[in-house]
Recover the amino acids of this structure.
């Protein structure tokens, strides 16, 4: 298939930033080599590559779980073979902006669990913090290693119609998706082995090495080989593939709550050779299930007494307990003020304009303009529980408004952002589909490192703005160019 055939079938979405085409319908320079390569391939050849990718995902167990009516359905994670490309200049801006944001968010967490200067100075209202279900009084004045609360962050970025990058949300608790970033790259190497070096694509494979280095550095015991474990809820968790992948790549033990116990304020792992003291826990268990003696007493996913060991400084937990207050969607709107307050800098990455529905005037405005809004729960995830005003029926809007009125604090609204579009190989042709980007940042004693890439999620349904895998989305490899 020649280049003209591909371009004839590709129709950019109106009023949307297209990652491949400029406003004058010229191919952007970063995509030119990819298009030149594709023009030498037939549609049948690309379809075979698409089938190979599916088979590789299946054979390697690269799946996720969709929960419907309480039952988990395991699915292959949809993968689009056409890469998403980011220029070196754009990546430099993204990297600096995320580092700035995380410095402020980490300082915010330290502040609100100690002096609360940002509240006393009237920057963030006290009721916004105290009404957040993830603000944990149990963390007040708890000393965390090196004052690092956010060790791993996934910051979701989108681009508006003019190409401006916006932060959609901050994921600071147990951010997922990094295994798909790593596997997407491995599969792309199989599909297009010559194209990656030709385009000077930067590597993402160093992520496990950086994470392991950071985990080693925060061990409470100053020993040459601290014991590090990855605590998983188990094989029925939607991200279990990721847990197994990261544990294997780092060479650490994958454990569940039943594999650990606490004695004399120290955490031990049960092994065939007896108990072994644990120094660092990379946990993928949410706060509320972490310790049944402190949080949910019915939890069997965590470890009884783990919080006492944590508070005594005998074990490090990654990410820190209580981080959810900083990625609450009601707190999100105050991050630009945090950056100015703590760093005395102007925010580099913009927030999407956000309305707090706990504010009466803002709620009235949103209700009057709800057809142009996306309304979300402040602690929702996975694309569940959202109202997309531009496609909702009158009945859906009425029911959602009634739900909001029960507890307005638990909802925010944002104007509908277009989301940029990138080319996807669908039905033997290229078509534009909406995308976002989740870069992964690793924070350690030596600073913040961001792997050059991330998880590009794709809304595979035509016209859809929802990229979540649980809502029919997929992903594609993210290429950051070296120059």
């Amino acid at each position: 298939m020649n280049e003209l055939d591909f371009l004839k079938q590709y129709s950019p979405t109106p009023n949307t930033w297209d990652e491949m085409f400029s406003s004058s319908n010229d191919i952007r320079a970063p995509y030119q080599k990819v298009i030149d390569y594709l023009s030498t391939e037939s549609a049948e050849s690309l379809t075979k590559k698409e089938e190979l990718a599916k088979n590789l995902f299946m054979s390697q167990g690269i799946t996720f779980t969709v929960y419907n009516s309480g039952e988990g359905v395991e699915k292959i994670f949809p993968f689009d073979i056409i890469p998403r490309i980011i220029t070196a200049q754009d990546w430099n801006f993204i990297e600096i902006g995320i580092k700035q944001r995380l410095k402020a968010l980490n300082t915010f967490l330290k502040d609100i669990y100690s002096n609360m200067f940002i509240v006393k100075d009237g920057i963030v209202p006290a009721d916004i913090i105290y009404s957040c279900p993830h603000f944990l009084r149990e963390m007040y004045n708890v000393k965390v290693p090196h004052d690092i609360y956010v060790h791993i962050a996934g910051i979701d970025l989108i681009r508006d119609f003019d190409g401006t990058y916006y932060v959609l949300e901050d994921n600071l608790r147990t951010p997922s998706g990094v295994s798909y970033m790593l596997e997407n790259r491995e599969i792309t190497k199989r599909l297009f082995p010559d194209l990656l070096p030709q385009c000077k694509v930067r590597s993402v494979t160093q992520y496990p090495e950086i994470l392991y280095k950071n985990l080693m550095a925060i061990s409470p015991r100053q020993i040459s080989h601290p014991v590090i474990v990855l605590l998983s809820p188990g094989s029925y968790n939607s991200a279990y593939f990721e847990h197994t992948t990261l544990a294997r790549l780092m060479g650490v033990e994958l454990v569940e709550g039943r594999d650990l116990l606490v004695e004399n304020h120290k955490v031990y792992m049960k092994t065939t050779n007896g108990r072994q003291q644990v120094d660092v826990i990379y946990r993928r268990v949410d706060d509320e299930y972490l310790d049944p003696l402190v949080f949910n007493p019915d939890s069997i996913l965590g470890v009884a007494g783990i919080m006492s060991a944590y508070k005594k400084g005998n074990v490090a937990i990654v990410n820190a307990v209580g981080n959810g207050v900083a990625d609450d969607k009601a707190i999100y709107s105050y991050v630009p003020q945090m950056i100015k307050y703590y760093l005395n800098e102007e925010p580099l990455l913009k927030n999407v304009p956000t309305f707090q529905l706990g504010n009466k005037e803002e709620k009235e405005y949103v209700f009057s303009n709800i057809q142009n809004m996306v309304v979300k729960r402040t602690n929702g995830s996975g694309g569940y529980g959202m109202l997309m005003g531009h496609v909702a029926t009158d009945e859906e809007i009425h029911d959602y408004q009634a739900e909001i009125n029960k507890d307005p604090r638990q909802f925010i609204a944002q104007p509908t952002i277009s989301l940029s579009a990138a080319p996807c190989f669908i039905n033997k042709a290229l078509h534009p589909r909406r995308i976002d980007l989740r870069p992964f940042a690793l924070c350690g004693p030596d600073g913040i490192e961001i792997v050059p890439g991330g998880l590009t999620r794709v809304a595979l349904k035509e016209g859809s703005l929802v990229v979540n895998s649980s809502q029919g989305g997929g992903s594609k490899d993210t290429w950051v160019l070296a120059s």
The two ends are 29 Å apart (CA to CA). Residues 354-415 form a domain with the Dna Ligase; domain 1 fold (CATH 3.30.1490.270).
